[in-house]
């Protein structure tokens, strides 16, 4: 059984859920799940958890993502991308490349962003895109997102390509739309590619076809503990390892060395030798607890 993460290079025209089904078939394994949905028209990095990796999704650090996008000025659509219906066409001909470059500083840092109607966010238990398809628009609450960096790779008006590094939950479609509104002409996305999601990077991404054809699929997997590299590693004694396997919280004496101070809410990786045993979480009132034990 395979355990860990595949970094799949999602092609355009399929859903993230489709990719999960394709991975299941490619590796002949049922326990598969994806992290961080990509729009059907988008391509790029889609981390897919398999086996015990599905238990580790909740501990991933995907707080920062990077995208490369191509936007088209002068046309606004209801989906904010090329798949939608045209809402408005406005003149962009008075604009120059410098106008786009000048806007960059105002889109950096913490921002309030209005989630698009065509999104998987739920309201009253119903995904917004289902309401949008019926022509229903509901009030949404703007959400705080953070744009860490934004730069234009090329500008060939009315099209422009930009790279953005942003917080989880940022809609790049909406960012392009907001840039278009700030320029007074509207905009929508023609292309969107995710180049990084946390530690999962474009250079490590493989196609579904490559995964299916691989003689040794194990060679393509990112071990689940490597995916949790951002968590501190603590070593258990043999007795401590046995305790953890049985779901018993280890005591100070069950570690091979002093653990040092824990921060409130800190999550740590527990190992017995080279075996990744569990993720534990510290609570100031209750002490250490086992958040998830791995087989």
Describe this structure in words.
The model has no long low-confidence stretch (mean pLDDT 91). The strands form four sheets. Strands 1, 2, 3, 4, 7, 10, 11, 12 and 13 form a nine-stranded mixed sheet that branches. The chain has helices at 16-27, 53-56, 97-103, 128-133, 172-183, 208-213, 238-245; strands at 4-10, 32-34, 43-50, 64-73, 75-77, 86-89, 109-113, 122-123, 126-127, 143-156, 159-167, 187-197, 200-201, 232-235, 267-272, 275-283, 287-293. 32% of the residues are buried. By secondary structure, the chain is α+β, with helices and mostly antiparallel strands. The chain has three domains: 4-61 and 200-226, Pseudouridine synthase (2-Layer Sandwich); 64-197, Pseudouridine synthase (2-Layer Sandwich), CATH 3.30.2350; 231-293, Roll (Archaeosine Trna-guanine Transglycosylase, Chain: A, domain 4), CATH 2.30.130.10. The longest helix has 12 residues, at 16-27.
Q: What is the H level of CATH, i.e. the homologous superfamily of the largest domain?
A: Pseudouridine synthase
The residue ranges in which pLDDT falls below 50 over 5 or more consecutive positions are none
Mean pLDDT: 91
CATH fold-level name of the largest domain: Pseudouridine synthase
Order of helical and strand elements:
EHEEHEEEHEEEHEEHEEHEHEEE
Q: Provide the CATH architecture of the largest domain.
A: 2-Layer Sandwich
Q: Helical stretch count?
A: 7
Strand fraction:
35-45%
Number of strands: 17
Could you say which overall geometry the principal axes of the C-alpha atoms support? Answer: elongated
| Structural class label | alpha+beta
């Amino acid at each position: 059984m395979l355990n860990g993460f595949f970094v799949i290079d999602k092609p355009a025209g399929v859903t993230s859920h489709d990719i999960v089904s394709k991975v299941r078939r490619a590796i002949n394994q049922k326990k598969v799940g994806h992290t961080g949905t990509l729009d059907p028209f988008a391509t790029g990095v889609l981390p897919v958890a398999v086996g015990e990796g599905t238990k580790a999704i909740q501990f991933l650090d995907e707080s920062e993502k990077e995208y490369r996008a191509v936007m088209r000025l002068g046309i606004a659509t209801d989906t904010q991308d090329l798949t939608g219906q045209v809402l408005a066409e406005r003149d962009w001909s008075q604009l120059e490349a410098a106008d786009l470059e000048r806007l960059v500083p105002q889109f950096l840092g913490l921002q309030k962003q209005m989630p698009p109607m065509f999104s998987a966010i739920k309201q009253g238990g119903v995904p917004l895109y289902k309401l949008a398809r019926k022509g229903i628009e509901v009030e949404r609450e703007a959400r705080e997102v953070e744009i860490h960096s934004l730069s234009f790779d090329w500008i060939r008006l009315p099209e422009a390509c930009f790279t953005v590094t942003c917080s989880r939950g940022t809609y790049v479609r909406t960012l392009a739309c907001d840039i278009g509104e700030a320029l007074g002409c509207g905009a929508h996305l023609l292309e969107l590619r995710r180049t990084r999601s946390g530690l999962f990077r474009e250079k490590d991404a493989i196609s579904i076809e490559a995964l299916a054809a691989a003689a040794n699929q194990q060679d393509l997997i990112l071990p689940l503990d490597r995916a949790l590299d951002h968590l501190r590693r603590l070593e258990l004694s043999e007795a401590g390892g046995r305790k953890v396997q049985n779901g018993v919280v280890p005591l100070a004496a069950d570690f091979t060395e002093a653990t040092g101070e824990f921060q409130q809410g800190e999550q740590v990786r527990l190992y017995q030798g080279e075996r990744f045993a569990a993720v534990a979480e510290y609570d100031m009132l209750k002490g250490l607890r086992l958040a998830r034990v791995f087989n």
